[in-house]
Design a protein that fits this description.
The protein is α+β, with helices and mostly antiparallel strands and about 130 residues long. About 30% of the residues lie in helices and about 10% in strands. The protein has a domain at about 15-95: DNA Binding (I), subunit A, CATH 1.10.30. The strands form 2 sheets. Strands 1-2 form a two-stranded antiparallel sheet. A two-stranded antiparallel sheet has the order 3-4. Strand 3 (about 110-115) and strand 4 (about 120) form a beta hairpin. It is elongated, with a radius of gyration of 26 Å. The termini are far apart.
């Protein structure tokens, strides 16, 4: 069974009235059940329960207030899911990412590592080999 990709939902403006309505719906608390700490209106982040990039709607029912700590955790989880979605869509399309050449610094020729693991200056006799 193949699933059709859902395009990202366009984002609406977060007006002060909309922010207050979401904050008030949760009685000024973080929406994460394990946290539920009281957050001030200015200190809260309004987050989409299902990220827009993952097909979530930008309506009132898909918004929740989060404290800064919970927002960092959820944003990291969403970023991982979005990256996975993009990888799956690329695999489905058959497209590959462009490979870049690895630019590394040249190895230093004036030092060497001994058998004991210590770094020491290279002596002239070794550099002739």
């Amino acid at each position: 069974m193949t699933r059709e990709p859902v395009p990202p939902t366009p984002r609406k403006a977060m007006t002060p009235a909309r922010r207050f309505a979401v904050w008030d719906r949760y009685q000024g608390r973080c929406a994460e059940p394990t946290c539920a700490v009281a957050v001030p209106l200015k200190g809260t982040t309004i987050d989409h329960i299902i990220a827009l990039e993952l097909g979530g709607a930008d309506d009132f029912d898909n918004l929740q207030p989060l404290c800064p700590a919970c927002d960092r955790i959820k944003t990291a989880q969403d970023a991982g899911l979005i990256a996975k979605l993009r990888r799956l869509l690329r695999r489905q399309d058959g497209t590959r990412r462009e490979r870049r050449e690895i630019n590394s610094a040249p190895f230093p020729t004036h030092i060497t590592r001994g058998v004991d693991g210590r770094v020491r200056p290279r002596i002239a006799k070794e550099s002739a080999r």
